[in-house]
Amino acid sequence: MSWITGVGLTPFGRLEGRSTLDLMSEAATEALASAGLERRAIDGVICGYSTTLPHLMLSTVFCEHFGLAPAYAHAVQLGGATGFAMVMLAHLLVGAGAAERILVVAGENRLTGQSRDSAVQTLAQVGHPVYEVPLGPTIPAYYGLVASRYVHEHGAPPEDLAELAVLMRANAARHPGAHLREPVTAAEVLASKPIATPLRLLDCCPVSDGGAAVVVARDPGRGGVRITGAAQAHTHQHVSAAPSLTRFGAGDSSARALAQAGRTLGEIGYAGIYDSFTITLAILLEEIGLAPRGGAGRLAREGHFAPGGPMPLNTHGGLLSYGHCGVGGAMAHLAEAWRQMRGEAGDRQGRVPAVALLHGDGGVLSSHVSLVLEQAA
Amino acid sequence: MSHAAADWTRGEPGLAYQECRACGQRWTFARRFCPACGATEVETRAASGRGTVHALTTVARAPSAALRPHAPYTILLVDAAEGYRLMAHGEGDLAIGDPVTAHFAPFGEGLIPVFRKDVP
Ligand SMILES: [Zn+2]
After folding, report:
1. What top-level branch of life does the organism fall under (chain A) (predicted)?
2. B50-117 is classed in which CATH architecture?
3. CA of A150: which chain B residue's CA is closest?
4. Which of A4, A151, A258, A270 is 20 to 30 A from A125 in CA distance terms?
5. Which of A134, A138, A241 sits opposite B61 (nearest CB)?
């Protein structure tokens, strides 16, 4: 049993002059204030990685900078799945008695800290260095391959996938911290410039600067939210070696997290699902069982995932519109779920959910982490 | 691990794959043991270059300045006739399920496999 007792989330976007450590520190400061904790109350620190601050020991670089001397600290690397993997690890460590209050923190000036070419090249290294990278693929290309197969097998029209981008932008318009807040229509998504077919610019998340942090603790603090289920699944690293392009580890991972919590999908009242591309979101929603195969976009159009609908989804705007700063990207999904569960989401507040499901993926749908959050009984 | 087969990843115009003598598993990424059963009796073989398009995407924005003049180009996942999957380039009008055959062309700093649709 563990509790999320505080969250911190910076605005995402173009934040000129802020370094990785600045963004981590801002998020950590807000998370500690949110939990009502002083620095000395933190006895564990788990951080992610930053492509603009590559370091062998980022956790202690951060601890030194921020002024922490914890009994436990290290970094975690699992691509897009890192944020939820860190929270799962903190949950397990707290449960095992290795620490009382763990600060989980991420931040990166991914947008302004490097050139666009350098960002694209760094991320393209997700590909196999011998068998894939020489062919000139990009991250959107790996997901474009997956999307081509999705369209082939399910016959979902491209305007359906576009609906997921439309929804994320509509949600972001209600969040002052979001990177992209200008509403878009499905027609605009379909008319945006091609990146890697069938994916277009507005099917892809932006690159942002930003930071996020949470406190995972053994005691509930001032009204925390419980973590009652956490599970992972890893099926491959490179898309060439994926056992399937239509079945990934999300179904397995989420089913085990729900079973651990003793919950069913029908009890979920809020979903925070990784959405690096519209295709990522569609596949994850469908594989988890929150939408029928090929039907995620159609449900979005029908209002199923709207803030006032039956299954509010990424009400902050997700990676697609709140933005993507690397490890902190998915942690924004968690910060928003936490606020929804505490009824603190302001204009974005839906019916306060009793149970929320979070799911992240890393690589090319390679690594999956699912978390179940619940209100105090 | 023998290198009897021509292999584009070493600058040679050919596709190589590996097969486990113990369990029959076939795969693309070369290694000294079988990823399915762990046996070390692994054979490197030359593939026919024939296969079927499993997935495809046309890349409009290349990842580096060096590759930008090549864009747009099409990247495929091909199910090789020998029963393994590989990433390659595609040429011409292609769709999932199309039967294709490889030739080899310079791209970036090396030689890469490029698949064209078979003429019936
Ligand atoms: Zn074997």
Report:
1. Bacteria
2. Beta Barrel (2.40)
3. B55
4. A151
5. A138
A131 touches chain B (CB under 8 A): yes
Distances (CA, A) of A114 to A15, A141, A205, A212: 13, 21, 17, 20
Q: What residues have a C-beta under 5 A from ligand 1, the ion?
A: B 20, 22-23, 25, 34, 36-37, 39
* pLDDT tens digit at each of 377 positions of chain A: 899 999 999 999 999 999 999 999 999 999 999 999 999 999 999 999 999 998 999 999 999 999 999 999 999 999 999 999 999 999 999 999 999 999 999 999 999 998 766 766 677 678 999 999 999 999 999 999 999 999 999 988 889 999 999 999 999 999 999 999 999 999 999 999 999 999 999 999 999 999 999 999 999 988 779 999 999 999 999 999 999 999 999 999 999 999 999 999 999 999 999 999 999 999 999 999 999 999 999 999 999 999 999 999 999 999 999 999 999 999 999 999 999 999 999 999 999 999 999 999 999 999 999 999 999 86
Query: Residue A182: inside a domain, yes or no?
Result: no
| The model's pTM | 0.97
Q: How many domains does chain A have?
A: 1
Q: What is the 3-state secondary structure (H, E, C) of chain B?
A: CCCCCCCHHHCCCCCEEEEECCCCCEECCCCCCCCCCCCCCEEEEECCCEEEEEEEEEECCCCCCCCHHHCCEEEEEEEECCCCEEEEEEECCCCCCCEEEEEEEEECCEEEEEEEECCC
DSSP category for residue A10: -
**CA-nearest residue of chain A to B107?**
A135
**B9, B28, B63: residue with CB nearest A120:** B63
CB B66 within 8 Å of CB B44: no
Closest approach of chain A CAs to the CA of B120, in angstroms? 23
Residue B35 Cα to ligand 1 middle (Å):
7
In a domain, A336, yes or no: no
Determine the longest span between alpha carbons in chain B, in angstroms: 46
A12: containing domain: 2-114+208-217
Is A78 inside a domain boundary?
Answer: yes
What is the dihedral sign for C-alpha A347, A270, A102, A105? negative
Is A240 part of the contact surface with chain B (CB cutoff 8 Å)?
A: yes
Domain presence at residue A186: no
